[in-house]
Amino acid sequence: MTLPIEAIKPEFLTQLAHNHVVVSAATGSGKSTCLPLWANDLGKVLVIEPRRIACTSLAEYLASQAQQKMGGKIGYAIRFEHHFDENTQVVFATPGVALRWYFENQLSDYHVVMLDEFHERRWDMDLLLALLKSHARHRLIVTSATLNTTPIINYLQATALHSDGKMYPVKERFMANDSRAMPSKYDLSERICEACEYALDNTDGDILVFLPGKGEIQAAAGQLSHLDALVVRLYGGCHPEQQRLALNVQNQQRIILATNVAETSLTIPNVSCVIDSGLERRTHLRAGKTVLNLEAIAKDSAKQRLGRAGRTQSGMCIRLYGEHAPLIDTTPPEIHRESLVELVLAAGCSSSGVDSLEFIEPLPQASKAAAIEKLSQIKAIDKQLRATDLGKLLYPLPVDAELAYLINAMPSKSLQQAMVDAIAVLSVPARVYQLPNSPEQIDILNKQLPNHCDLELVIALVRDQLECVKAEPDALNEAKQFSDQLRIAFDLPQRKHAASYDRNQLVEAIAKAKPDWLFVKRNNRRGAFGNGKSEVVPAKETRVNDKCQAMLVLDTYALAGKGTKQAMTLATLNAPVNLNLVTTLGLGEQHFIDACLVDELIMAKVSHAYAGLELNEQLLEPSGQLFIDACIALILKGELLAPAGSQITQSLAEHQLYYLANNTPFEMLTAKQYLQDKLTELGLQEQDDIELIEPQDLFYQQVEPWQLEPFIEKHPLHVKLNDLLMQVEYSFTGKRILLTHVSGNRKEAPKKWELPAWSGFKVRYKKASKVVDVK
């Protein structure tokens, strides 16, 4: 069978000999299988595929077509697995593998590099393209399933080629009550079942169902078990047998339940009907961290999904949402919705720094600045944004840089081993285990791990020390692979020889390295925990119980609500800690409350708070600014250097009144502000310094007494008539005076003849809420 891409072969070979080439072609046109073989005329070819399942399936297909064993002429490399040697001519690799090879030798083994499915706009593909453009040593092929290739063509100054392919008509059917109904997760399995039943009655080909993730696929598979069809599950990390059933035509009609791995990366034969849930799991930034959330797809994805039904015959696309649902036009590139920590570190390792590279579009400044700050804090990059020796050590490791930093930060080999095993579980994208449900198994687990600590649990799980916890075999095996690889990288014993560790020492070491992972319980109904910057709620998957007052949070996921205020971040992998650890590590803030004299020694009463929670109060001998704060409090209470406190308070008020009366500009100054400046000026630092200061040294006096005293005599701040004490407020511009009752039993208002001679002022008297004119 002649593939549509064959039409551009002569021009492709002619242009590739002299220029970079950008090829736009529909999925199924043959671009991923033909272009690498054609390009091999120029030398070895590295094909970068966004997804592992595409890497392995494409390599296996081409090897079988060439009737060669895998790893001969055709090979592949994914995390933890590779099949190629120095003679392999075409190697399929994931972007993460290719970036690490670039770091090692700038991909010097290859003449041609092909970036397949570039329209998915992963951050690692964007970075690879920027590095390869800067390096200018390879001939580049960039492929896209969309026609909007103008930005790439201009960026590379490349030749554009297009293959139309053959597309049969596809009829759309919308299964929604409202034409504007958005994709929804509610009753999804039941609606999938209804759509599949309709499809089986109306099509003879296979049915491809797009679902957002493995969980939804498993749920739908259970719902479809009664149908007369072969139900196949296809997702990243699925069993090889399921992958084989999905990629090859079977004797029985199939219902293939797939994530968007089947949207463009793979060609699935004999599909005549697509059922589109309209949902996908998409990354986005939340509090500076990349999280995975359930989202409605964009219109470009909807178009790609529909196209899968019209490759070999007329087809049908059943949408489980409204015909006029307000979907966004395009899926945002990953650089706009993910943390850039890994990108900035990779750029620092493989170039002169992220700012030395020209990207296909500028990186978001806020995300880039946050990544630079985070990497600078762990000393993985220098001021020029180039990777430090530590950064170069962390980067090749198969885990996030921050997690790799944690391993390096552990103070002993035994704690490093424990950290490696915990991070191995954190690095697996799939769910690794489920907590037991039965009371008997819960009791066994609580006896084995009495601290209710998820951190202890995952370490024991990787070390095969738990029998009462149900693990997902594939995910646990991947975690063990991570652990084994990290143990080799850090020169640690094998898992079977894992050393025991002290849980409290591990928790403290993690908190020292990552203090922002320490959360304390807030006093609210949600049972939330905070760290001063963000808030989390313990997930149902955690072992942490209601008695926990503080915990280390090692992993979270976001749970969206109807509005931003209802959105929650759920903490899934946690370690309970004692609240005292917060103060032991010097975290949080110390607040001055008051001061007192104890045996003529100045003491400060302070409280310690973290994330808005008052942890404790204590009386201590102060130093530095705390000592000055204590002195100020005692002076103003009249217990130290009297009568300086009363003189300063009175004099400041008198001066401000004088300046107001004379319309003279002045700085509003409180007694605390004045004393802060004065005591600092006098060099007050410790207890003995007080003996060198006289009360008069602190007195406030700016206006000469011969000017100020006659004014205050006419304009007193307080007036006392027998036992009646009143505060006086002046409005010189409005020529008004307000007398406010302070103390005294007198019932009637004062008389004007009893008061100072305030000529030209209207005088009023206020007691409680009643205000009357003074006559």
UniProtKB/TrEMBL annotation:
It comes from Pseudoalteromonas caenipelagi. This is ATP-dependent RNA helicase. Keywords: ATP-binding, Helicase, Hydrolase, Nucleotide-binding. The lineage of its organism: Bacteria, Pseudomonadati, Pseudomonadota, Gammaproteobacteria, Alteromonadales. InterPro entries: DEAD/DEAH_box_helicase_dom, Helicase_ATP-bd, Helicase_C-like, P-loop_NTPase. Residues 187-351 form the Helicase C-terminal domain. CDD domains: DEXHc_RHA-like, SF2_C_RHA. SMART domains: DEXDc, HELICc. It holds the Pfam family Helicase_C. Residues 12-165 form the Helicase ATP-binding domain. PROSITE patterns: HELICASE_ATP_BIND_1, HELICASE_CTER. The keyword Ribosomal protein does not apply. SUPFAM superfamilies: P-loop containing nucleoside triphosphate hydrolases (SSF52540). It comes from the Bacteria. The keyword ATP-binding applies.
